[in-house]
Each structure stands twice: as C-alpha cells, then as structure tokens.
Specification:
Chain lengths: ~70, ~160
C-alpha cells in the first residue's frame, strides 16, 4: 500500500514526533507507516487523516498487488 | 494482540534481573556442580519417585539450586518478554506477534536438528536448554526489530 503521509505531514510543518504524540502512537510507528513498512489499522488511519486534514483515500492508495 | 495479557512496563526490568540471576545460578549449578547447603532439603520419597530421591521410604536430601535457577529463568524471561513497552501501540504489537511466531519456528527447527543429530548426554543438555530457548529467541528477535525500527525513526525526517 502506498501512502502520502510524509508529504501531508511536511506540508503542515509537523515532525514525526508531533504526529506520534497527537495520534497516540510511538514515533517508530509513524516512521514505519511513512516508509510503507506498516499498514495501520482503520482507527489509526482515520486518526492520522483527521490530524493531517485529509481523507483516508487521499492519504492511502492500494497498489496493484494489494 | 490484546494487551490485557501483558504485564505493566515496570515488570520488564524485574524480569531481566530475575532472568540474569537464574542464568548465573544455573550455569554455576550445571557447569561447576555448585550445591549450596542452604538449598539442600529433605523431601518425602513419594513426592518424586526417583531412585536418588527416597530410599526405602526414607527422605533423601536434594539440592534445589538447578530447580530454583530454572524457575527464576522462566519467570524472569516471561516477565521480560510479556511486559508492555513504554509505548505499546499496534505497531509494537505487530512486531511482538511476528517475533513470537519467528521464535516458535526457529525453536522447533533447532529442536528437529537436535533430535536428528545429537544423542545421549549431549541430547539431554540440549533438551535442558530447550526449556528456555523459545523465550530467549523471542526476546532476542523482538528487541532486535525494536532497535532497528527506532534507529530508522531516528535517522528519518
């Protein structure tokens, strides 16, 4: 799964630590999500989308082999 | 993975201390045959029907250092492995589950190799160590992936 988390985060001038603290996860989780090494749960995806002011569909995108 | 089965974070350090104590005592008992007098007890013959424990119904003293060290190792490793991380979120839970599965696969793979290629006392020694290897393998793998992910987070921005 592809994501645009980093772009959306940087556009708002937030650090990974900021995002992690605001959505209640560790910074490692935010980094893993941005690196597409971890696909978040629905709840976490919705929290991230709400924080970054985007919809879940704008942030996450299915790949061809998903 | 439901965190209600995990101990609070503060038990992790206690677990490591217990495990280290058990490992040191166990190595002392296993390799140097150290048998402190204060751990030698008499137990009734019917409790453990073993040739060296109880003779004609008369209790025989047994040194419980190996048993104590094994219990300390198991309890300590369980506490260290099953205590929450400071930040226990869904990603950490996924790492925990993956590490547990990896430890099970590797442990039984090694066990199969031991069954096929080791015999007599070497096999017995390996069976003794195999009481602890699932937890030890899990701890090694889990902390390795945690370290790798925190290092990746440190260098990314």
């Amino acid at each position: 799964m592809l994501n645009k988390l980093k772009l959306a985060r940087v556009a708002l001038g937030l650090t990974q630590e900021d995002v992690a603290r605001r959505i209640g996860v560790s910074r490692q989780t935010v980094n893993a999500m941005e690196q597409a090494k971890y696909v978040p749960s629905t709840v976490l995806a919705l929290k991230a989308a709400r924080l970054l002011g985007k919809s879940v569909e704008e942030l996450f995108e299915l790949e061809a082999d998903d | 993975m439901n965190t209600r089965f995990l101990f609070p974070h503060r038990y992790k350090a206690i677990g490591w201390v217990l495990f280290a104590a058990g490992a040191v005592l166990g190595l002392a008992a296993w390799n140097f045959e150290w048998q402190p007098a204060w751990l030698t007890f008499q137990i009734p013959a019917f409790v453990l029907p073993h040739p060296t424990l109880g003779k004609d119904g008369v209790p025989v003293p047994h040194n419980f250092l190996p048993e104590l060290s094994a219990v300390l190792c198991i309890l300590g490793a369980l506490l260290a492995a099953c205590s929450r991380e400071r930040y226990e979120d869904e990603f950490i839970m996924r790492l925990r589950l993956d590490s547990l599965l990896w430890a099970v696969y590797v442990n039984y793979g090694l066990l199969i190799l031991a069954l096929l290629f080791t015999y007599d006392f070497l096999f017995l020694n390996i069976m003794v160590y195999s009481m602890f290897t699932p937890l030890v393998l899990f701890l090694l793998r889990f902390h390795y992936v945690l370290f790798r992910s925190s290092r990746a987070a440190r260098y990314a921005e």
